[in-house]
Every structure is written in structure tokens, then in C-alpha cells.
Amino acid sequence: MTSPDGCVSAVLTHPSELDVTFTPGCYGRYREDTLERQLAAVATGLWAGHRRGFLAALSEALGEPARGDGQELDSERDSQGYREAVAAVVADRRSPSGRIRATTTALVRWDFEISPGTVRALSEEEFRQELLAVGRATLDDFFAQVRELKDEHYGRPESRFFDPWADGRISA
Length: 172
Prior knowledge:
Ybab, Chain: A; about 15% strand; 4 helices; alpha+beta
């Protein structure tokens, strides 16, 4: 996935394995507010593409189109309540230095806050490492909250099957 301005690229190979690169010469020209918007667009597009790929694989495995609302795998009585709860999950983390904050709602909406002066203070590689760390931490937070919701709504370990990455049986 590439940012709208073409300067930031990201690749997701697994829900917590991502990489971000900058087109040479772009990073140092950013203002923090502009970079925040570019990162939000990249993260949103990255997860939308990941979800489309997951649904395509699920459709192939099921032999019919997957609707994407979770009912393909979940016939439990409380599945609607669970899906609504997941849609409301907010994960919010800061990078190790505290300079970058990432917030996501259900992995559908992403927002970034970058402290003023960060682009001047951090090299491109330092910023990239901070960004990757906050991205992983935010994803870990989201998936931990989803696991808690599964336990709350279904109360059994086998419900973890519905988290396609929890036990490694399904991968991106």
C-alpha cells in the first residue's frame, strides 16, 4: 500500500509483521501534520486490502462468497453482540520514545499523532523503527482486546478459532 502522495509504502505479511519505507528524499520534507494524514491513509488502506484478501481466501475455503460479517464462522446466538463489540474496540498506543501515537477503531479507522519536531529530531530510520514499534503495539493491543471479548461472549477456548491468527492455523 502506498500513501496518497506516493512517499510512504507499507507491506503487511501477517497481522503483526509489517514494514514501512519512505521514497528517497521524502521523509525530511514532511511536516508532522502532513505525515500523520499520509500514515492514516496507508494504515487504513493496508487493513482494507488485508481484509479483502482474507475474505477471498475464506470464500475459496468455504466454496461460497464470504459476507465478511463473521457469520460464516460463527453461528452462536450472541454473535451479533460480539461483532458489535469488536467494531467498537479502540486500540491506542505510543511509540517507545512517546513521539508517535497510533489509534485504531476496529482496524477500520486509523489516526496518528506525531509530536512537533519529530521529523527534525529523528532520522528516517529512527522514525521508521518508532513507527513499526507503535504499529505492532497497537495491533497487539487490538487483538488482545478481541481475545477478551471472545472469552466474554463465548467463554470457551475453542472460540479462539474465530481469530484466524491466534493459533496459527490461518495465516495471511
